[in-house]
Amino acid sequence: MKFADFLNFFLKPYGDTLYQVDVELSPEELLAVLKDNTASGIFAAQSGKRFCGRLSSRDFHLRWIFSKLRNSWGPIASGRFVETGESCSSLGREQTRGYTRGYSRLEFRIVMSPAVQLLVPVVMLCLLLVMLVGFSEIFVDWRRAILIMLPLILMPSFVSLVAVLGVKLGQRDARQMLAYFESLPGATLKEAPKVKHFIT
User: Which UniProt keywords are listed (predicted)?
Assistant: First the structure.
């Protein structure tokens, strides 16, 4: 694995894709549905709802908490609401679960919490500390150097193991989050076209 791939695994484990979800709901109805599935407060994870975070009529920053896996680092859907039209649904009222025939769009990326991203430089600093302290002591007393280096090696190794497990479980939760958005009334999930920037 290249070093860049290693960093991307921790810093951007969910990729950099911009998702678009077209929904057979009016903006007001879509906002109401998401609010019903969003919890707040310190006990949000025990609420049984799918999200916690910030939600307004313009944008949202929602962390996935609907997971029984405690070690999972809940991915965050960060994006905005885009109103694209009214009364353009091709579905019947039964298929839209009783909602009116509005038409809205969500645009979002799945990101990791900035607090979690700080874990990578912390681990790197710990490993650097191991090398500095260990190599400085090894010329004086190799037994003492081993005693110093052993806990400093074990700690970053344990943190790295937890980090890898958390990222893997978070990727699983990210797929569940996308499945939830696809389950909204009349929803169509797609990746937004990538815009190429040319230097002239």
Answer: Membrane, Transmembrane, Transmembrane helix
